[in-house]
Amino acid sequence: MSGTVLLGPGEVDARDRIVEAVCPRPTLIRDITRLCLEHFLDRVVATAPLPPGPRLYLANHQTGFDLLFLAVTLAGLGHGPARLLVWDKLRLMQYGEMLMPLIERPDADDTGALCGIDLVAFDARLPDRTRTAIAAIAQASETKSIVAAAEGFLQQTEAQPTEHIATALLDLAVATDLPVVPVRIAWGLPEHQTGGRFCWPHRLSPLGVFLGPALRPAELATLPLPERRRRVGAAIDALRPPPPPGHALANAAMLARVEAIVARTGVTQTKAILQDLLLATHPARLTDEGQATRELLRRGQWAPLAHRDDWLARYALTLSDGMITTDLPFDALYPQEQPEPEVR
Amino acid sequence: MRQASDPAVLALEDDPHRASVMLAAGGFGEGAARDIAALFLAATLDGVETAAPLPPGPKLFLCNHQIALDLLYLAAWLNGPAATPARVAAWDGVGSAHPGELITRLAALGAATGALGTTAETGLWFAPLLFDSRDPAGLAAFVDRLGVGARRGQSLIVTAEGLRHRADAEPVRQVGTAFVEAALAAGMAVVPVRFAWALPEISQGHRFAWPWRLAPMRILLGQAMTPDALAPLHLAERRDCLAGAINALYRPPPDGHYRRNSERTARVARLQAGFGISETKALAIDLLLSAPLTALSPEGTALRQALTDHQAPLWTGPEALAEFALYLSDGGATLYPLLHQLYGQGAHSGQAWARA
């Protein structure tokens, strides 16, 4: 699919710059964000120039973190701050359990743990509260873009059409005169229904993110609601390029390790993935906090965390599931430490 | 050892003993939290045997360690059917592990939706007394408080070694002396306890959160050792004596034991693989969906319906129950197709029955 590649496959330096812009403090969230972008985001492509000013990005939703990856990339590339609309029960899910404490870290400074990205939570059980949340973000739309899942739920197959677009989001675009940028998250789901949804990409294959030509709010306003939904859904679904060759096996080794961790410890897939990301990375590439957390995972050693703030110690303990990781066969899973990274 | 016909033995699979199960789970209140606790006990605890009547007064239960919640299972039996107030001592990371998280959430659910079973002496027995293993001074202070608990008539349940074993017959090799010395100083008898049958005969190379192949665990309690008998021994002799008493209680499981829950094991593995959820959540979902409706309270029935029907009335019902359902289903919604496959047509209407 032609267009401007905002972030290309294998561009490690570009990912580093994005993460350092969004996570200016060298804390654990910087390590986790960078490692996630390296492993689970293949590319971000804009098929048309993005309109100036704040926008409403309406995306399909394939995996738990996909919209966060999008918001981080856009903010890190200088496309302005963004508000990410999330469900207020997110923390009850396995990825929210590990994500939300990172973002809501109590000692984060005024810019927040993720600089330029606000999470706005809404209660999906109560429509009134959803509208209230959307009204609140509308007030900020003069200065900030909004990133939201068009349908609100995770799709289950790669080709699943985006049909059930939330009326409130379309109303928001019209009421605030925000151009709607259709976004297709791709390559993260299986071809056929498996019976489950995916917090992480199927086979851990990296995602492709494709941004389509913006839809003008004035144009949407003239359409009746069903047509308005169809128009936005069609714009999202039109962005569906096939994955590159070998894509399904891109993270095959990691998948095998994660499955081994889950089988041995019974932890969630999310914890196993985050554990693996840290364990498979050379300590020299991690922040001090990342190194200390890795030591707890690898050797059960509290020492590097003993004088840290309690938040980090608690988070590391949760990530290790009560230090159950110390029982893993490290020599088999990680046969040799990676060499020191080259100094760039 | 007493046999299953003896009233002192808790044989959890027998229907006549269901009252004992519910009593053991009673600390979690009257509703869904108790339902789940009872289902876990009935499915993964084979029973409890006592070599001799427990002596009166506070005691130190000194145990080997097989699975994450084995000490808590003993606490359930002691505080329930055995009417012996007792708490578990655990390090403060226990709540970070997935079984510990379930207990924390069950406690919150029980507190929010019904009266929790407490006694004036012990408070909430299922809430472990936590110590910080990173802080030696804190541990010393914790052990000092053991005497205070004893004066209140409260027994304490501890692991002899701290770490979980990897194989069923693995012997206790070390006995931590801090709790034993404090118990003797407080005049408490020491009861050796052997958890058995929850681990494979041959080590698989790692520890287990729940029983291997979900084979139900048996708890074997030995004869209490009085302070008078232990105090004259040198420290090393005392350690050997206590480790030997725990190890002597072991006996191998009956033939076919590890196949008893093979169908449930397969379903739980499928749920884990399908949703990436923890083994604990998968087991809790399976227990709820495969239980006969008669085993559930109205609240437990509502919880089960919420797992299989996103239009269930629960979503506009009590917040605590809805939150627990969301926690258990890892956010809900898209769980349904796989549950439908595993538990049949009824899963969508809240009338689920396991095919097993």
Topology:
The complex is a heterodimer of chains A (344) and B (356).
Chain A: E1 4-7, H1 12-22, H2 28-40, E2 41-46, E3 56-59, H3 66-76, E4 82-87, H4 94-103, E5 117-122, H5 127-139, E6 145-149, H6 167-176, E7 180-186, E8 207-211, H7 217-221, H8 225-237, H9 252-265, H10 269-279, H11 288-299, H12 303-306, H13 310-319, H14 330-333
Parallel strand pairs in A: 2-8, 3-6, 3-7, 4-5, 4-6
Antiparallel strand pairs in A: 1-2, 7-8
Helix pairs in contact in A: 1-2, 1-3, 5-6, 9-10, 11-13
Chain B: E1 10-11, H1 18-25, H2 32-44, E2 45-50, E3 59-63, H3 70-79, E4 86-91, H4 98-113, E5 129-131, H5 136-144, H6 146-151, E6 155-159, H7 177-185, E7 189-196, E8 217-221, H8 227-230, H9 235-248, H10 262-275, H11 279-290, H12 298-308, H13 319-328, H14 336-343
Parallel strand pairs in B: 2-8, 3-6, 3-7, 4-5, 4-6
Antiparallel strand pairs in B: 1-2, 7-8
Protein described:
The complex is a heterodimer of chains A (344) and B (356). By secondary structure, chain A is α/β, with parallel strands linked by helices. Chain A is 41% helix and 12% strand. In chain A, strands 1-2-8-7-3-6-4-5 form an eight-stranded mixed β-sheet, sandwiched between helices. In chain A, α9 (252-265) packs across α10 and α11 (288-299) packs across α13. The longest helix of chain A has 14 residues, at 252-265. Chain A is globular. The model of chain A has no long low-confidence stretch (mean pLDDT 88). In chain B, strands 1-2-8-7-3-6-4-5 form an eight-stranded mixed β-sheet, sandwiched between helices. Chain B contains 14 helices and eight strands. The two termini of chain B are 33 Å apart. The longest helix of chain B has 16 residues, at 98-113. In chain B, β4 (86-91), α4 (98-113) and β5 form a beta-alpha-beta unit. Classes of the chains: A alpha/beta (344), B alpha/beta (356). At the A-B interface, α9 and α13 of A face α10, α13 and α14 of B.
